[in-house]
Amino acid sequence: MRRLVSAIAILSLLSGVAYAQTQKPALIGEDGGLQERGLARVLYWNPRQDTAHGQFAIDYGRPAWKKDYDDPAKFDQLTKGKVWRLGSNFWTALDTQLPLKIGARNVSAGYYYLGLRRSADGATWSLVFIDPSKVRSARLDAFQIERAPVEFEIPMTVEQGKGSSEKLTLTLSYAKETPKDVKLTIAWGKLQLSAPIQVTVGT
Asked: Which residues pair with 186 in a beta bridge?
């Protein structure tokens, strides 16, 4: 009788597990709804030859800043010591036809996924570069950025007292007289980061 009771109990447990698993579908699709994307781009044009000399661009989703992030403790919990998703929905991507020098690091022409890393003590931020082919092989979503292997990263400067940006905004700015010297700025809420970019073009 005891064996019979034990067997029934085990079967009931297995049936419950199986039932719980069947409640979740094996596959669903998500389109993300209407998506707002941003694009920061610099195109180099030769008016004398009436032709392009190359360009680079960053494509990204624009998440809104949340009030919760205004709490330093909450923001630290989300970001300290972590690789952080830069943008929303599909991966934030840098596509460059030209060699770049971002900070002190040379970046070859090519296609890269981007993220941010904050140090464990919270003092520094870095721009993270990820190989899209490895992400593609692993079929990772940008939400899973912590599982993506980082190829390299470049330190960014934290800028203070620049106001607040309601949605993530990436800009590539330069002086008219020196278009090869570009400044990348990442602004979201009260967070503002920057890095200098030197562009090899027209040679």
From this structure: 170, 193
Consecutive H or E run containing 44: strand 37-46
Tokens linked to 124: 């520094």
What pairing do the DSSP bridges indicate for beta strands 93-96 and 165-174?
A: unpaired
Q: Six-digit token pair at 54?
A: 């190359």
In a domain, 143, yes or no: yes
Query: Of the candidates 186, 169, 175, 178, which has an alpha carbon nearest to the alpha carbon of residue 202?
Result: 178
The pTM assigned to this predicted structure is 0.84
pLDDT tens digit string along 24-48?
Answer: 888 877 776 777 899 999 999 999 9
Domain residues for the domain of 191 are 36-199
pLDDT tens digits, one per residue of 113-127: 999 999 999 999 999
- For residues 162 and 140, give the distance between their C-alpha atoms in angstroms, rounded to a whole number: 34
In a domain, 126, yes or no: yes
3-class SS at 125? strand
Give the C-alpha separation, 189 to 69, whole Å. Answer: 8
Structural Rg of the chain based on CA atoms: 23
User: What is the token pair recorded at 147?
Assistant: 């599982």
Sorted by sequence, the CB contacts under 8 Å of residue 102 that are 6+ apart come out as 127, 154, 184, 195, 196, 197
